[in-house]
Amino acid sequence: MFTEMRLSAWSTGIRDKLSLPLRIILWNGQQFDLSDEPPRVTVKVPGPSSLRYLVSPSLYNLGKAYVEGAIEVTGRAVDMINIGNALAASGIGKTQGRLSRSLQLVSPHTRKKDAAAIRYHYDVSNEFYGAWLDSGMVYSCAYFEGGTEDLAAAQLKKIDHILTKIGVQPGQTLLDIGCGWGALVMRAASRFGARCVGVTLSENQVQLARERVRQAGLQDRIEIRLQDYRDVEGQFDRITSVGMFEHVGVQHLPEYFRHVNKLLAPGGVAMNHGITTTDVDNRSTPYGGGEFIDKYVFPHGELAHLSTVIRTMQEGGLEVRDVENLRRHYAKTCATWTENFESNAERIKTLTDPKRFRIWHVYLAGCAYAFAHDWISLYQIVCGKAGEEPSQIPWSRRYMYN
User: Fold this and answer.
1) 63, 89, 115 — which closes off a domain?
2) What range(s) does the DUF7884 domain occupy (predicted)?
C-alpha cells in the first residue's frame, strides 16, 4: 500500500522537478499542491487503492483512473492533458515512450469485429455528436484556409477542398467510404452535380444521413447505404475516404487499396484523408496514449506511418499524385471540439452515461495535444490507377485553390 508519507515524498519530488499547477486531495482531507501557483487541476483520491494510478502516471493509467471513477478530476480538459503528459513524460514511475506492437499479434479485422467497433464509437447518439460538432455534423479534420474561420466554415472549406482536388464534375459518380452523416455527398451532389453513394457501418449515421438527404431533396442523386466497404461493387469516377481508413488495420491496407482500385473507374481519381502516426515503425502514441485510445475510444483502430500508407497504396495498384499535411488543422479542429464539448457539458451529460462523458472529455483534448506535438498527423493523398496518364488532372496545383 502506498502510504501518505510516501505520497508526501513523491509529491515533493514532482514539485521540485516539474512544478505543476496540480492539487491532490486525499480521502482524509490531506492536501498536496505540486506548485506555488494556483492549481488548474484538482484530483480527489477516494481511497488508498487509487494512489497506484498516480505513482505510475502513464497516460493509460491516468486516463483509466479518471474514466473508471477511481479518481475525481476537475479542471479544463486542456490543463488535464498538459499535466498528465508532463507527469507521463517525466519518467516518474518508469513510464515508457512509444510502445511497440507486433502486427502479427493484432486481432484480425473481420466484418463482424469492424462493425462492432464502429457501433461502439459512432452509435452513442446523433444528439451526442450534434452537441459539439458543427451544424453539418462533420467528424473529421477541418480546413482553416485563412486560420480564422469558425468551425462550420472550416468544415465546408474542407469538403470543397477535397471535391476540388479530385476534380468532381457534373454527372460523375462518387463513392464516399465512411460517409458519416452525409455532409460530403450532399455537397458533392448539390454544388458539384455528382451522383453519389455513401456507405457507413453506423446505423445512427445512416438514419440521420438519409433524413438529411430527404430534407434537401437530393434522393435522386444520393444513396446512403449501411454497408461494409468490402461489399461495395461497381465502378465510380471519384472515390473519397475521409477519416475511415484508421479502422482498416495496418496489415489490411494493401487489400483495402486494392479494393479502392477495383472500384475506381478508368481515368478516375480517389482521395484518402486519414490520421497517421509519426512513428516510422507504426508504433502507438507515447506514454500509453495509444493503449487508452484502443481500449476506450477506437477498438481495433490502427495508425500507419505515411511511408506505410504510400507503400501500400502502390501495392494496391494506385499511384500517389498529391500529398498534403493538415496536422495543425486537426490540432485546431480538436481544440475547437474540446471547447464546444466543455461549453455544452451539462447537456452532454444528459445524452450519455458518466463514463462515456469522461472518455470523450479527455479524448478530444488528448487528440488536440497529440496533433499539436506531432505525435500523429493527418494527410490528404490524391491517387489514381498506377500507369495511367492523369490527363484529367491539370499540370499545376493551382486549380485546387480556385
Assistant:
1) 89
2) 11-86
